[in-house]
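Support reply, case 0932

Customer input (verbatim):
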Amino acid sequence: MNRTASQFLAVIVLAGLCAVFPFGAGAQVGRQQGLLDPNVAAEKDLLAVPPLNAALVKGILARRPFAGVTELNSILSQSLSKEKLNELYGRMFIHVNLNSATREELLLIPGVGDRMVREFVEYRPYKSYAQFRKEIGKYVDQKEVARLEQYTFIPINLNTASDEDILSIPGLGQRMLREFKEYRPYKTLEQFRKEIGKYVSPKEVARLERYVTL
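Our regenerated output:
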């Protein structure tokens, strides 16, 4: 095979790999489409989300960070109907772990019913979003797969995650990225709690811990 033919074949192979494993497929929070995370969103952004009002936003700010979406839902459901909550979660949500989310958590994702919960659970454990897109794409179109993806995350490995993966954690910036990497290799999650607890509150450490694994 001459050089030109070899180069052409390499391009074809690379294109095929990109189609199956798109760039960023390993990013641990699903690709976002403007969905707000109430644990880190600015007050002005929350106030712009119907049906939230000033009193509800004040309550969110006072209680956050929430351990998960069910905790948030238990508070908001005291003031909002199921229909209003479904509307709200189309704009704001706390990501759920694809590999461990409960049925209750998954059913809070707008448009997800019992059938889709079964499909989500069937293919666990998910190792990448390429896998998620392939498996869930058997049941819904690509647009719906993308919509569902934004509600989820796949935990990253503290010791091997790329900068891109770590920065996909909501509210995590360059300073905390440096702290995450400074203490590698982590041997236990308790070590992670101790080291990162030097910089943020215990509740914030717990929020961050949701997104990581060893």
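We compared this against your earlier run and they match. Two observations from our side: The longest helix spans residues 3-20. The chain has 13 helices and four strands. Please reopen the case if you see a mismatch on your end.
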